Amino acid sequence: MRFLVTCKRVTDPEMKIKVLNDGSGVDLEDANYAVNPFDEIAIEAAVQKIEEDGEGEVVLVAIGDEEYDEQIRHGLAMGANRAIRVVVENGETLDSDSIAKILVAIYNEEKPDIFMLGKQSIDGDSSQVPQLIAEYLDLPQATFVSKIEYLNSEVRVVREVDGGFETLQLSTPALISVDLRLNEPRYPSIPNMMKAKKKELKEIELDDLDISLPQKQKVIFRKLVSPPKRKGGVKLSSIEELYDKLKNEANVL
Amino acid sequence: MSKLLIVAEQRDNQLKKVTLSAITFAKKEGFSFDIIILGSSVESVAKELSEYGAKRVLYSSSPLFENFIAKTYAEAIHEVVVKNDYEYIVSTSTTTGKDFLPRVAVKLNAGMASDIIGAEKDGDSLLFKRPIWAGAAVALTEITTPYKVISVRVSAYPPAEKTTISPIESITLTKISTPNVKFISLQENKSTRPELTEAMAIVSGGKGLKSKENFNALLEPLADALAGAIGASRLAVDSGYATNDLQVGQTGKSVAPNLYIAVAISGAIQHLAGMKDSKVIVAINKDDEAPIFEVADYGFVGDAFTAIPKLTELIKSGK
Ligand SMILES: Cc1cc2nc3c(=O)[nH]c(=O)nc-3n(C[C@H](O)[C@H](O)[C@H](O)COP(=O)(O)OP(=O)(O)OC[C@H]3O[C@@H](n4cnc5c(N)ncnc54)[C@H](O)[C@@H]3O)c2cc1C
Q: For the segment B180-207, what is each residue's pLDDT rounded down to a tens digit?
């Protein structure tokens, strides 16, 4: 089975994010970066499958400048075979639709059996790119997947949906976006990190892809603002006191 | 003519109340709007939807819509939009809305703003507020395309009230292709409690409760006493204490009840992202430095295993 998997670089999920005073973005001065946690889960799922089969290939794809290579190497160290980075400076200004179009072009070059992506990236939180790609390519789509079973030329997946679990069956080639509970991504060993340095990481220039991105993006962030700040209240010394406050001060009982 | 189409949601031909939040969005921003509902037999849902002041309620009953399939829904909505020339296509950021709306956007060559919590006028255009980075920032978002697709965060818009009656109209859709995924089954998490996004009170439990048995034994009586819903942190769900659809947070549900009681939840930013807009937040945690206290109106530092039964008793006694 051949997998194409996204490996996006995002700010460390543990990091405190602050909006810049001028609203032009968030403060990334001392930022740490990581592979988007959902993409990590997708990489893990693909690597598990090729390890189990003893054959197949996992190709990573990222869109960005060379700063992204550290995260791509992490994905390679997890067990992916090779990687592609589409060279884009200021990738943050591209909207979901442009990202999807770039990934569609890479899909068309790679023709994997399964295109696997995280269900959202933890910076933009849009949860659009996988569905956009599935529509552009008319691929069978399963989002928010927490279980995958490989049948002959089909995959059976369980999706986490509001109110329960949905089971779908898809013929390949197919597109899957993964949810948190699919697996726990491994932490690569030092020898695997060394090996990853020698794996192929191909750069592709945006101009070499047969796509045109609109001058004006379809979705633009005009400005970022800080959310209203919530102040901590009081700590109470007994449950009786807590009950009294809820009943007589907050009036919520 | 209405400029805005609301795509309503149903399951088993019962209206999902989340749709009423999308209606509130449309009313609040002063749009005249139509509503569409798809399903296997949805005339009665259309009647129910006709009480909320839409210009028209369209419905299409067909076996094609018995189970929700993103591709099928996208085709259907696309057909309706093109025929009636709506500018805005609006639904909610539920797992259903997230699944099919981006596909509608592609068909219409439109931009889409996900999970919006507000809007503000900027000259002739409307800017949408969307939380990003787990709610650490709010982006004022412009959609620059003629068609605009929007998913609304349910907890940011209270359910619409009934107003005037609108006409309902059955429509037939002719451009639906064969689905390319096979629907196998839907296993529903049955519960007699209010849905998380609809509840006035939520009792939410974390990893600190240590087992599913503890989780249920402590939280169920309290939720009963409050006629509320039960929520959970990601670690509580990962550990099997609660089902997946009860996860509150960046990657679970966003909620904003009158009362949110966080029990043995540390208050990671990803959890706060889903509940910090609640009206009153109570935190019960044995660690007095837990970050949850930074957003809690009322905190109690102590052991949940003794605190929760006591609080439950007091609420039940009503004194
Ligand atoms: C990509 C990503 C997405 C995520 N999405 C979400 C999400 O949507 N929702 C979410 O919740 N999390 C999410 N998380 C996880 C989040 O970062 C935290 O790990 C999680 O919220 C912690 O859960 P918790 O508070 O139950 O557990 P812990 O952080 O382990 O906290 C347990 C708490 O229980 C307290 N405690 C223990 N025993 C007792 C007792 N007897 N009485 C009282 N208090 C006690 C402890 O003091 C502690 O504060 C996400 C993480 C990532 C990386």
A: 999 999 998 888 898 898 899 999 999 9
Closest-CA residue to A167 (of B185, B67, B12): B185
Q: Is B308 helix (H, G, I), strand (E, B) or coil?
A: helix
Which of B15, B75, B89, B112 is best to mutate for the A interface (most A CBs within 10 A)?
A: B112
A112 and A137 Cβ atoms separated by less than 8 Å: no
Residue A32's contacts (CB-CB under 8 Å, 6 or more residues apart) are A11, A12, A15
Enumerate the domain spans of chain A: 2-248
What are the pocket residues of ligand 1 if the criterion is a CB atom closer than 6 Å to any ligand atom? Answer: A 13, 37, 122; B 206-208, 233-236, 247-252, 264-266, 268, 270-271, 274, 285-287, 290, 303-305
Please give, rounded to a whole number of angstroms, the shortest distance from the CA of A197 to a CA of chain B: 30
pLDDT of B1 strictly over 70: no
CATH topology of domain A2-248: Rossmann fold (3.40.50)
Residue among A32, A92, A94, A128 with most chain B CBs within 10 A, to mutate: A128
Residue A231, pLDDT > 90, answer: no
Residue A56 near residue A2 (C-beta atoms within 8 A): yes
Tokens (6 digits) for A93: 């200004």
Question: What ipTM describes this predicted complex?
Answer: 0.96
Asked if A169's CB is within 8 angstroms of B182's CB, the reply is yes
Ligand 1 pocket test target in B115, B133, B207 with most atoms within 8 Å of CB: B207
